[in-house]
Amino acid sequence: MRAKITYIVTAAVLVFYFVLVGSRGVWLIQSGTPLTVAFGVAVLILPAIGLWFLWKNTQFVRRANQLAAELDAEGGLPADELKRLPSGRVDRDSADEVFARRKAETEASPDDWRCWFRLAVAYHDARDTPRARKAMQRAIALHDGRPAAHDDRPASRHS
Q: Coil, helix or strand for 115?
């Protein structure tokens, strides 16, 4: 729940920033000189890109949460079986062990979105966010019946 609140607050702050920057861009365009119009258009591009990125990221998070809810209803969410250090951080050997199992599971069933979802969780637990995101995108695509945008084989955690 804390992550959801943090995401909402961050998104709200970004939207406020985009509106503020956008209003300055409009003000520059209304000034009417060629230079201020050019700057105004350039300034308006930034909030447009930011809003697009925020929208795409929100859609990704929403879809991942839907898959998590569906997997939870099936009883298929991965259990937290990771050993932790006294500091609370995940033990690397434990993360490697779980990752190896998830990778083998995914290689055995490369068309099962559930396997890719669990692999994404393993990548996330191993602090490999880019691969976690790619694996989750693959899970979403498989769930939706769309072809994946990348290779069907899970990547090694240390490559």
A: helix
The answer to whether 57 touches 133, Cβ cutoff 8 Å, is no
Residue 76 has phi, psi (to 5 degrees) of: -105, 5
Dihedrals phi, psi of 112, to nearest 5 degrees: -100, 115
For residue range 30-73, list pLDDT tens digits in order: 998 999 999 999 999 989 999 999 999 999 999 999 999 999 99
Write down the pTM of the prediction.
0.76
| Alpha-carbon gap, residue 52 to 96, rounded angstroms | 35
Look at residue 32 and give its three-state secondary structure: coil
How many Cβ atoms are within 10 Å of 3's Cβ, its own excluded?
A: 8
pLDDT digits (tens, 9 = 90+) for 104-119: 999 999 999 999 999 9
Asked if residue 125 lies in contact with residue 81, where contact means CB atoms within 8 angstroms, the answer is no
Kindly state the tokens that stand for 19. 């509106």
